[in-house]
Amino acid sequence: MRTARAQADPAIVETARKPFGWAFTTPLYVGSSLNPINSSIIATALVPIATELDVAVGTTAVLVSSLYLASAVAQPTAGKLAEVLGARRVFLAGIVLVLLGGTVGGLGQNLAMLTVARVLIGLGTSAAFPCAMVMIRRRAGQAGLDQPPGGVLGGLAIAGMATAAVGPPLGGLLVGTAGWRWAFLINIPVTTIALLMALRLPKDPPLDRAHSGLRRIAHRIDLIGIIGFATTMTSLVVFLMGLPHLNRAALTVFFATALPTVWWELRRTTPCFDLRGLTSNGALTRTYLRQALTLLGVYAMMYGLTQWMEAAYGLSTVQTGLMLLPMGAVSALLSRPLARRNLVRGPVIASAVSMLLGSIGIMLLDSRSPVFALVLVSLVFGVTTATTTVGNQTALYKAAPAHQIGTAAGLFRTFGYLGTITSSVLGAIVFRDGASDHGLHRLGIVLVAAGLAALTLTVLDRDLMRPHPATP
Known about the structure:
Layout: H1 2-8, H2 10-17, H3 22-41, H4 46-53, H5 62-85, H6 87-107, H7 111-125, H8 128-142, H9 150-160, H10 167-178, H11 182-185, H12 187-198, H13 214-220, H14 223-242, H15 248-267, H16 275-280, H17 282-313, H18 317-323, H19 325-340, H20 345-364, H21 371-399, H22 405-430, H23 437-459
Helix pairs in contact: 1-2, 3-8, 3-9, 3-10, 3-12, 5-6, 5-7, 5-8, 5-14, 5-22, 6-7, 6-8, 6-12, 8-22, 9-19, 9-21, 10-18, 14-15, 14-22, 17-20, 17-21, 17-22, 17-23, 19-21, 20-21, 20-23
């Protein structure tokens, strides 16, 4: 019966023969690279933006925090929408939002317009990863695979994390040669290409008419839960970004919305965020925590070391960006072969150990260190980037229930963004008196503590002692 159906349907034949061809994977990779690149590309444009718009350099930090905030909220929301409305539909809508954000930012005449552009880019790019995970999981099921498609997940890891290191050098070249507006305008050609390729992705199943009304869709996606989550996350991020100053208003809003949201999600039969499932699925929860800790280290190094190299070491913007290229190169080279083997324990241990070693290296740097020492630290954190992305992403694929992979993938990215946001707060605290050697060493001490926490969380994880069975 299965053979006869396959012979009658060419799409099934193609899926079984080559389920993950380039026409399927390329738009997913391109879409997933947009968020990390946009997260980091703005770093080299903040000073030129402040100069041209005649605002204080400190105020341009809103362009960083606005994308972080939008992404932290939108990632799991996009995953839930993909599960309910269709991953391809949400993926295409996200690309259109990025295209709009790039246009608004490129034409922006004030900081408010640029902030709106960054929010649009954050919302749009947040759809790519959870939608990609939904489509990959669905494709693997259609092809009858009983193990994660390691090669595809490896490509997604490169697109989703290794490209973050490309942002600063790319931004340095764009800003240095064509001006700061190209930190936004670069999205227009890239998203146009991605949109044309994404139109070739397999279409989503048709929406059930019995569940297609706006009220029914709002019920299915748990709109009240999404609004509660968005308000809770927004207040938490605002509180974190205000540290070391205590933002009591944000903290009050956080507790005032978090408790009712938890109550609401626990009483629903089909919640947007399955809190009971999350607490009972220890492997998934620990995966989120590992991702947050290691990304705290990676981004604290990326932004902190970049700031120190320009202010204390005396490198130019372009030179500083180029110093991070080894990090991206090592990450890209390691990600795919590691992912092909579907390993979890080895890579996540390697990520914690390499983060610990790189953090010790940061403590030993000073303004008289040779360039080779800076490159070596970048290389070590390149290993961290590859191993944490591959190991935790594979653990996510194996531990998350198939029907919740979109929301789980979104929460995976949200925890990563919490680590990233904390890293920016950390940098502001240690460099509050200027980007000096002393501030860099304080950063290294904190990162050593975070590395030890990540290593302890990994080594003591009993679930990692045995291989996870692939989720049906």
